[in-house]
Specification:
It is built from 4 helices and 6 strands. It has 128 residues and is an alpha+beta fold. The protein has 2 domains: 72 residues, Winged helix-like DNA-binding domain superfamily/Winged helix DNA-binding domain (Arc Repressor Mutant, subunit A, Orthogonal Bundle); 49 residues, Dna Ligase, domain 1 (2-Layer Sandwich), CATH 3.30.1490. The strands form 2 sheets. Strands 1-3-2 form a 3-stranded antiparallel sheet. Strands 5-4-6 form a 3-stranded mixed sheet, with no helix packed on it. It binds zinc ion (3 copies). One zinc ion binds next to β4.
């Protein structure tokens, strides 16, 4: 019985791994779950969360916090936001060059997340 359950979990993990191998964008647990459940209806969201945590711990995935959600990427990347202090809208910013980081950083950088806050263009327009 226990063996049967563990075999079933292994095949669910294989399926999740295949989904990760095909992912090219940032995703959250619900998005991965939605894709996986189409191929195996037995899969549960708890399994997805556990799988994602294991991948992050193993350094295979990188996690970022995005608008109070945790999102994941298979590549070492940067994930940066501009958040409006007035309307709380969140805009993603793609920072290509990270050479403004201190060069004497002795820790090994894994990924970068920068959060910038301010007043967005539409809120600025409303105040005029
Ligand atoms: Zn990372
Ligand atoms: Zn984000
Ligand atoms: Zn705004």
């Amino acid at each position: 019985m226990a063996e049967l359950i563990s075999r079933r979990l292994t095949s669910q993990k294989t399926l999740l791994q295949q989904e990760l191998d095909h992912s090219t964008t940032l995703f959250d647990a619900e998005e991965l779950y939605a894709k996986a459940v189409k191929k195996n209806s037995a899969i549960g969201i708890a399994t997805v969360y556990r799988f994602l945590r294991e991948c992050v711990d193993a350094g295979k995935l990188h996690s970022y916090s995005c608008d109070r959600k945790t999102i994941y990427s298979t590549s070492k990347n940067n994930h940066s936001h501009f958040r409006c202090e007035k309307c709380a809208s969140v805009h993603h910013i793609d920072i290509k060059k990270l050479d403004f980081l201190p060069v004497n950083l002795r820790n090994m950088v894994c990924h970068v997340q920068i959060d910038i806050t301010g007043i967005c263009i539409s809120c600025q327009a409303k105040n005029k």
